[in-house]
Fold this sequence. Notes:
The protein is mainly beta. It has one domain (11-184). Helix content is 8%, strand content 36%. The chain is built from 3 helices and 10 strands; from the N terminus they run βαββββαβββββα. Strands 2-3-1-7-8 form a 5-stranded antiparallel beta sheet. The protein has a 5-stranded antiparallel beta sheet with strand order 4-5-10-9-6, with no helix packed on it.
Amino acid sequence: MHWIESAGGPLLLLFEESLDNWGGVIDLISGPAADIRYSPGGKSTDYDRACSVKWYIGLIDIGKEYGVVLGGEPLQTTWLPYQAASGGMVVRWVFGESESEFLNWIDTIPEAMFRADRTFNVNGPKLLLFDSAVAGRNVKKMPQEYLSIELEPGIYEIKTAIYQPDARNSMVVHRFERCHGVLVQRDDTTNKNDDDSSQNGGETSG
């Protein structure tokens, strides 16, 4: 099982073809600038925008597409694809004593624990999940530091569960489930990052 984690900030899920539009802690390529600076040196960067997500998951503008930010505390993370349909689960390890025991609990998460967070349009076949501090142009230079995720084009509903089945295991799980419907073009009035902490109930990452 391939797990990745960041150096302390959020992870970012981005279309492979959009990597050059992400500046990490180096540049502000995609804009607009965030209100708070998290990058070394205090300059405005794309990393600041990722750190401004105030829940475990959120969407931000990156070029002509959106990126999915995994906010909250930095956690070891892996991807479990569905076998019978396009989609899968981003699994984040809060704590656990063994990988096998931890993974066995995933199928026991009650359906009622999943809350609908976002819908996400997938226009390309391949996405990469990586440390948002890394500039997109450098991501593929470090193959052990990112996850490659393949999804069929379509609209995906993202649902999140925060689950602690016992005293030894705790996880955050994001399900990506393909919706029945027609793929729509990006609409700037939807899919946007929601920074309302009263609605999202999370802490700012960074």
